[in-house]
TrEMBL record:
Assigned protein family: Belongs to the EMC6 family.
Leader sequence segment: none
Membrane topology: Multi-pass membrane protein
Sequence intervals crossing the membrane: 43-63, 75-98
The UniProt record lists the keyword Endoplasmic reticulum: yes
Protein name (database record): ER membrane protein complex subunit 6
Protein's organism: Diutina rugosa (Yeast)
Keywords for this protein: Endoplasmic reticulum, Membrane, Transmembrane, Transmembrane helix
InterPro entries associated with the record: EMC6-like
Length: 100
């Protein structure tokens, strides 16, 4: 049993993953507002950017093997739903500021 499978290590890994996704959601929301994307295009941008950030996270931080650092892939699905609020907030705020 490697140290990355201990519950404490998994909790730390999930916390780091959530911080990366929180920041990426805010930055991508601002980018979406600056680009003046609206409706479905904005949500598609979110899905693509979220997938890209997670792929880079797995490649860089997990060295391509997320099973060593996380228990299951539910953390990726939960992050998708959990970070959409911050994305929408920044998307609307930045979009309104650009239009003004």
């Amino acid at each position: 049993m490697s140290s990355s499978t201990y519950p404490t290590s998994v909790a730390v890994n999930v916390a780091k993953f959530n911080k990366v996704n929180d920041l990426a959601g805010l930055v991508n929301g601002a980018a979406c507002g600056i680009l003046q994307l609206e409706g479905l295009n904005g949500f598609l941008y979110y899905a693509v950017s979220y997938t890209l950030v997670n792929t880079l996270f797995v490649i860089i931080s997990c060295q391509g093997t997320p099973k060593r650092f996380f228990q299951g892939f539910s953390v990726f699905a939960n992050g998708f739903i959990g970070n959409i609020a911050g994305f929408i907030m920044m998307w609307c705020l930045t979009g309104a500021l650009v239009k003004a």
